[in-house]
Amino acid sequence: MKISFATGLSVLAISSLLVGCQTSEPAEGSTETQEKTSESHTHVSESDHEHSHAHDEEAKQIYDGFFEDSQVSDRSLIDWEGDWQSVYPYLQNGTLDEVFAYKAEQEDAMTSEEYKEYYNKGYQTDVDRIIIQGDNVTFFKNGKEYSGEYIYDGYEILTYNAGNRGVRYIFKLVEKIEGLPQFIQFSDHSIKQNESDHYHLYWGDDRKALLDQVTNWPTYYPSEMDGHDIAHEMMEH
User: N or C end of the chain: smaller count of CB under 10 Å?
Assistant: First the structure.
């Protein structure tokens, strides 16, 4: 019997429309260099500056989904450790309306109302909080807690219709527990061990079927952030 709280991350969302995930990988952001003009400081060489620029470009390309298979490496749950909240309640109460208005101004793909409808379907979930500590994952659903131990089950590289790609990092439930999905799959636009600042999560009992889910991508940010902080973070990307 399939146990699934929601369906997974939209291919279209990854390829072109994710509000908070447009240009840079979590914790893969740009590195600023500043030349020192005083003799008491070390000058940044031209080669250092070029190296930094190349790193920035590579990070952006990876975030946008353009990378080689050889660049992908395994990750552990420590990358997603912490206390996380769903962004869906902020969509429901109107906090994210400024994000959809901003998207509509920046792109001609949809109106702000159409963006909101699109993300309403994408963000929808009844799991409003997730806590990850070590190998233990706790889902908070409808006022109840469901906790279990998950182990790494590899990754899958997906190619999207838009031509870019993404990586799903997969973890498997060690011991079957009622109320918990057999598999969870993380997508945060990173392709190597790297602390995540937000993520999209797919879950269910069919590992392969989860890779084909395209209409729903529950999204989680740190619980200490308020809705306005999250909205501004989304618009900055």
Answer: N
